[in-house]
Amino acid sequence: MAAEAAVTRLTLGQSATSAMTTTTMSRRLRCPPPAAATSASPVTVSLADLPHKRSSATATTNSPVVVEKTDAATLASAWREVQGGGDWTGMVNPLHPLLRDELVRYGELVAACYRAFDLDPSSKRYLNCKLGKNHILPPTAGAGYTVTKYIYAAPDICVNAKSRWIGYVAVTSSADAVRRLGRRDILVSFRGTVTRSEWAANFMSALSPARFDPSDPRSDVRVESGFLSLYTSDDVKYSKFTCGSCRNQLLSEVTRLVSEYSRGGDDVSVTLAGHSMGSSLAMLLGYDLAELGLNRDAAGRAVPVTVFSFAGPRVGNVEFRRRCDELGVKVLRVANARDPVTRMPGVVLNEDTAARVCGRAATWWSKAWCYAHVGVEVALDFFVASDVACVHDIDAYIDHLLSIKCDPATSREDEADADDVASIKVTREGEDGGAAVAAEEVESWRWQMLAIRAGELLQALGI
């Protein structure tokens, strides 16, 4: 017998999220083997250019973007708005079909990392990518892209922690793809947590100064120490590839591609996409590029840096969020309200805690030690009782994005009415057998969450 409960309610806008779960590796093969490319469908929207001006001290000030909607536009004419040029104003609630399609596409490019990661201990490619660069990309989402580099990382939290494959860098290489997207897109895609050492890094919730810019360390900008370790640690002694830190690999490759492809006169964008822990690495890379001023084309113009985060945790403190906003790093977070990882770290000390305790008068304590999400949120709400882990699964995120009815004319009131009608559908076979099993899983999950909250409170208090 089986019991299945699916919540079809979608909340678009700011949303609270809760709990914690394990990233599942039994992922459905969403795409067939690489085949012919397909093109994107045109959708109505357009935008004005996003001005980027950087002072000599590397800080930037965001100017408002004037969005002009037209009756005939494509991604090529609206890509700056889709990449966050207008902070996604008018595109999130309700979700615009053009933005939805791009979120699905980048989600597929992230999911490709899980399908390619080799977890067989008997394999010669164990903890590395089992596919070549010409075969890793899904045929539709990756149409027109070429993988230029594989990325490796090793968390500096245990003895002999060797590098493992964490993602890839790709760039639109075909003329058709450049015309379809409206620019040359440099993509960095990260997978989420899989190995034990990576999970250990996730639980290192202490905040540490990032200090990415040696000329201006900004000790007030703090990030989660485990993510920072994964991003900056080098494993020259133990690595099979001795390829340097994840940070060095990424900065050198992204800046090389920006310099190379901006010389031809094409517009260039940098898109960083990741799931779970991978979204944290994407956030750190986006901040790093902007803080060092490396997001500049051959003519010295600012290149848009956009992070598409799927099921991402908090990465840094309130000052980290403020600095990302100041530098113009655009972040769009896709989060399931039932996904516990999106509440981590900072279950106790977070932006909501700071607001309740300090009110509008921010203090040094709230700025330094309270975690804060960055950017704009697209909040989903789904849960399957027979598969609790689905609340954090990248494929489940993609499926629910695909299920959204994206009608630009749909109002919030219409969506609210739809939510009230059969928001939860339960399929039962027999009497109580399957339902009892599902209820037991959910109850166990609640106890795990209580333990996590208690542990983080003790850590926050320094006990």
UniProtKB/TrEMBL annotation:
CDD domains named in the record: Lipase_3 (cd00519)
One GO-annotated biological process of the protein: lipid catabolic process
An example molecular function term from Gene Ontology annotations: phospholipase A1 activity
Domain Fungal lipase-type: 188-347
UniProt keyword terms in alphabetical order: Chloroplast, Hydrolase, Lipid degradation, Lipid metabolism, Plastid, Transit peptide
Main location, first listed in the record: plastid
Top-level taxonomic group: Eukaryota
Classification via InterPro entries: AB_hydrolase_fold (IPR029058), Fungal_lipase-type (IPR002921)
Protein name stated in the entry: Fungal lipase-type domain-containing protein
Organism: Leersia perrieri
